[in-house]
Amino acid sequence: MIETDRLLLRRARMDDLEDLHCVFSHPAAMRYWDCLPHDKIEQTKRFLSGMVGASPKTSDDFIVEYKGRAIGKAGCWRLGEIGYIFHPDHWGKGLAQEALRAAIPHVFESLPIDKLVADVDPRNSASLRLLERLGFTVTGRAERTIQVGDEWCDSVYFELPRPMAD
Ligand SMILES: CC(C)(COP(=O)(O)OP(=O)(O)OC[C@H]1O[C@@H](n2cnc3c(N)ncnc32)[C@H](O)[C@@H]1OP(=O)(O)O)[C@@H](O)C(=O)NCCC(=O)NCCS
Q1: Fewer C-beta neighbours within 10 Å, C or N terminus of the chain?
Q2: What was the pLDDT predicted at 165?
Q3: CATH classification of 2-161, choosing from 1.10.1740.10, 3.90.76.10, 3.40.630.30, 3.90.180.10?
């Protein structure tokens, strides 16, 4: 568990389902995700079960709590890959940055990785800016990397090397 000024980062639990479904069923939150908004709670349940059952050898992922509610998730969901999503009611207050500034050092301590990577839709300005602010740099771009519904989307690839030991 990690506490920041405003947030609590902790492991996922199955009773996060309702709060998490509010996030994963929200069209704005899911606009640049790798699937369409969840219209059935079973879809979110599958996602959450994956988080709850994830191996600590390959994942260091957190539910983000704000004022006692789960407002999103942030962390390393698959070895070396960072992922985050927050409910739009809480965007634009620096919460994603606060969560990831706490989660990233934990990820590097917990997992045997020499870098973190991210794959972002080039239209996702908030995510591009967030990664830049966290010190990630662009390593490449590709077109038509994923189909979500009827739409083909492009990718910008980012990485953050493991910080040098002091
Ligand atoms: C990406 C996301 C997590 C950002 O959350 P947030 O809490 O609003 O981000 P922050 O407030 O910490 O802002 C981080 C930076 O991005 C900037 N930013 C936020 N929203 C922005 C927007 N819509 N356009 C441009 N910049 C934006 C902020 O100004 C800040 O930069 P600054 O410090 O220079 O001012 C949030 O928009 C989200 O959950 N999106 C949906 C899920 C998603 O797309 N995840 C990423 C998949 S790759």
Answers
A1: C
A2: 75
A3: 3.40.630.30
157 lines ligand 1 (CB under 6 A): no
3-class SS of residue 89: helix
CB of 130 within 6 A of ligand 1: the answer is yes
Q: Is 9 near ligand 1, meaning CB less than 6 Å away?
A: no
Measured distance CA(28)–CA(122) in Å, rounded: 16
Mean pLDDT in order along the chain per 10 residues (166 residues): 97 98 98 96 97 96 97 95 98 98 97 96 98 98 96 97 84
Reported pTM: 0.96
Report which ligand 1 atom has the smallest distance to the Cα of 120: 48
Judge if the beta carbon of residue 158 lies within 6 A of ligand 1: no
Answer whether 9's CB lies under 8 Å from 110's CB: no
Could you give the strand order of the β-sheet that contains 2-3, starting from the edge strand earlier in sequence? 2-3, 7-10, 60-66, 69-78, 81-86, 115-120, 151-161, 137-148
